[in-house]
Amino acid sequence: MANFFLSIGSNLGDREANIQKAISLLNLHSKIKVLQVSSIIETKPYGYIDQPDFLNGAILIETELSPSKLLTELQKIERKLKRKQKIRWGPRTIDLDILFYDDLVIEKDGLKIPHPELHKRIFVLQPLSELAKDFVHPILQESIASLLGKLENNQV
Predict the structure, then answer these.
(1) Which among 2, 24, 67, 113 is least surrounded, fewest beta carbons within 10 Å?
(2) Among residues 14, 95, 109, 121, which one is catalytic?
(3) How far is CA 142 from the centre of its chain?
(4) Which of 14, 50, 83, 102 is labelled catalytic?
């Protein structure tokens, strides 16, 4: 069994209900166990800013699925919750991303772990720090708390 950290977000429809449904669908999967969920925070959009504010959080799961199979399952949940991406970083009912897979570094089949942009996104680091402030990013060799501190102090 492996531990994965995920990010979750929503800015269309009933944002809170979308997040709760996604977490429930993760828990209903026979090979996924949700271990922890961070607080859900409201954040401004990133990238494409002409859209509603997001609700964002982080999730720690345990699974026997490979990273690519987990990604497939996350995409199924997104489709089930009617995610349609028309604009990069645009509005969506749900967004599920793999942030970390234990302390491994993976780059294959269109999958990059750790998530290549997570250290630039306060809306990812803030909830993640609740679950894993001392976790060390395997490439940057800095803790989540340190990365968050740099962003909060505009040092990135």
Answers:
(1) 24
(2) 95
(3) 19
(4) 83
